[in-house]
Amino acid sequence: xxxxxxDILILGSGGAGLFAALHAHQTxxxxxxxxAVKGLLGKCGCTRMVQGGYNVALGAGDCxxxxxxxxVEGGKWLPDQELAWRLVNGAIxxxxxxxxxxxxFFDRNPDGTLHQKAFAGQSFDRTVHKGxxxxxxxxxxxxxxxxxxxxxxxxxxxxxxxxxxxGEHAIAGVLFIDMRSGxxxxxxxKTVLLATGGGPTMYRYHxxxxxKACDGMAMALRAGLRLRDMExxxxxPTGLLAGPDTRMTGTVLEEGLRGAGGYLLGGxxxxxxxxxxxxxxxxxxxxxxxxMFEEIRRGNATPNGGVYIEMRHLGxxxxxxxxxxxxxxxxxxxxxxxxxxxxVVPTAHYMMGGVEFERDCSTAVRGLFVxxxxxxxxxxxxxLGGNGVANSTVFGGIAGEHMAEQVREAGYAQPDEALLSxxxxxxxxxxxxxxxxxxxxxxxxxxxxxxxxxxIRSKSGLQNAxxxxxxxxxxLLATGIGDVDPAFNLTWHDWLNLQNQILVSRCIxxxxxxxxxxRGAHYRSDFPQTGDLRxxxxxxxxxxxxxxxxxxxxxxxxxxxxxxxxxxxxxxxxADGRPQREAHGVPS
Amino acid sequence: xxxxxxxxDAVQPxxxxxxxxxxxxxxxxxxxxxxxxxxxxxxxxxxIQRHRDASLAYRFACRVGMCGxxxxxxxxxxxxxxxxxxxxxxxxxxxxxxxxxxLPVLRDLATDMAPFFDKWQAAQGRFSGSHxxxxxxxxxxxxxxxxxxxxxxxxxxxxxxxxxxxxxxxxQPDYVGPAALNRAWAGCNDVREADRGRILRAVASDxxxxxxxxxxxxxQHCPVGLNPTRSIAALKRAALASLSSHx
Lengths: 588, 247
Known about the structure:
The complex is a heterodimer. Chain A is an alpha+beta fold. Among the domains of chain A are: 244-347, Succinate dehydrogenase/fumarate reductase flavoprotein, catalytic domain (Flavocytochrome C3, Chain A, domain 1); 427-541, Methane Monooxygenase Hydroxylase, Chain G, domain 1, CATH 1.20.58.100. Chain A has helices at residues 15-27, 64-74, 81-100, 134-147, 215-222, 256-259, 285-297, 316-322, 324-332, 388-409, 417-428, 439-452, 459-477, 490-514; strands spanning 2-11, 33-37, 54-55, 116-117, 127-128, 151-155, 157-164, 171-178, 184-194, 227-228, 233-240, 263-265, 307-310, 341-351, 354-355, 368-370, 537-543, 549-555. In chain A, strands 1, 2, 6, 7, 8, 9 and 16 form a 7-stranded mixed beta sheet that branches. Chain B is an alpha+beta fold. Chain B has 2 domains: 14-111, Ubiquitin-like (UB roll) (Roll), CATH 3.10.20.30; 114-245, Fumarate Reductase Iron-sulfur Protein, Chain B, domain 2. Helices cover 34% and strands 15% of the residues of chain B. Chain B is built from 9 helices and 7 strands. In chain B, the strands form 2 sheets. Chain B has a 5-stranded mixed beta sheet with strand order 2-1-5-3-4. Chain B has a two-stranded antiparallel sheet with strand order 6-7. The longest helix of chain B has 18 residues, at 228-245. Chains A and B meet through helix 3 and helix 4 of A and helix 1, helix 2 and helix 3 of B.
């Protein structure tokens, strides 16, 4: 096994990882920085896939208090308010940094001022974007800057375990598989940032990049860290449904299609949304997803088991012009979005939950930091579209600064060699068992999570899922991939992906069982009421030494504003003439 | 390219697929893959790895044409495989899939893209501004001439399809290639760029824009419709003007 060391070790190269590298270098140019990523730097993960945009309170008439209230109310009062406050304030500086220092160029109004668009769930037009390819602009500009820095790149290096310090509650380093050679590599580090992203790819239909497998959250669970809000998995209503044998299935068709007036049709060819919500297809993501799930469950489904989206009543030429990228994407796959019907299905999109952390991105383990989708508490029960990339870039930068300061004083901790050996053995285990078939195991996981831990949940369904997941975990452990050449062996990584996905699936199901109410992304058919907001509690969960979960619920601290109150004096001015939501109530 | 409209897909629902195995030295290996209705080239490769040969090496990430990780050579042409429907590329139900040209082969279908990104840096493909994170954003009308020119070149997904399509890259190993020069041209047109001279000096040196023979392979194959040849032609004029004005 190869060994090396670095002052700062960053896992992941999305918005969080790249900003951490950049700010760490700016803060402490003498520190050695290593950035390790499962794919190529800047080319895997989900920041790059951001279509919507970046929420920031820069517009005249907007303010951080308004962005904060939208974030907290959208999160159904579960967000950690100090983290949410940090997000909305940090977003302003970070957005300006992206433009002025990194060279991103976001869409402008005709007069040259910044364009900010309306986005669901927000009381002000504050979403900065570059067409519908905002993520590519952000990550390309960040990646080309980081390529030019003295940062060691460990590309196609998969992190497999946090290795603690011998005899203290601190991190000593990370064990990797060099995916190209198949060799193992221990990197000793003074500080480590977990920024691999979440990505709920354990559901049959999912949007994230195909490399995602909740690796970071699984590593954090095995290291004994607490994760919060893990029951909160956001579904996007319109994932492309192209059948079981294509990786296109599950990828997002953008929200704007419904917003522009697109119809959702059941298998019978009739619209159904008005039976669920007066707003019809324009209802919020959670309501539309549940209605679609319900129609599909009742059998009013398309040949592939979804519903149809239809745009042609808006004029095929108009649709082709307004949704060029989506129409082209569908056409490449053989579908006519502008003039025909395309099958769609709700698709798992984002994990609001993650590792519990402080405002400086530190965690309960000394030297280990977290940022981005791996971190929990910023979004609560639901994430606003446009707050995801703000979250990863704001907190990634903060983490980089704090890590760079910490390494000035800190030394290297000595790894617990017994635990390092155990981690090595665990990741080599599938190579030592006779080869089996992983495909049915993956199918089984997708089915369990989709049927019982997805859009509509119940006690009996979740208990069933937990039993099935335990059996699946045992079945995976009994299945090997054989004594194969480990170099660039995707099947070995498929096995490791499944192991991480099953662990995090168990965590989601356990947290969902503990939350006996319905709010945001979490819906329990046996507890359909939201419950008392002032008594809101969040779930907090850790994996114990016997591979079982310790689950607690903790009261939300309303450190800035309590349910029924607002930080605002008055509702938003009538931006773009859209109807305004109601005022929040009386400040106290 | 004309679509393969073989009418007997339903009768003979299989593809014959030759896949590159090995590194720089290697050979094609034949697989028979079932045809399905909505099937991309990436899906064909995935099916082989999941059902026929678990050791097949390839690279992909986003699945939807945003990350530029999965480009391969498909029936002789560089393609983004996640967005290439097999119907548009098969000939008599036959596919030949190899790694991208002009990059070192790591294994099977995966190449080492490091030279591509190193050359992006060599062409000064990064921004250098004069304002900071504490300053307001620049007011730039989107219809202004410079912004239109920058916008026309900026939405590159760095998939290296153009780099693989370029014969000059093959002949002249130090040529930085179409994507890097296209990025440089976008930078030259960014009115916020504080050091255009840095970019123009870089692209005017050996292996820069003057190596381009305007063969248009890049523009023909770019999956997102960019035209690096046009950017490079403009870059040649700008570099010449800049050099002559500095004597």
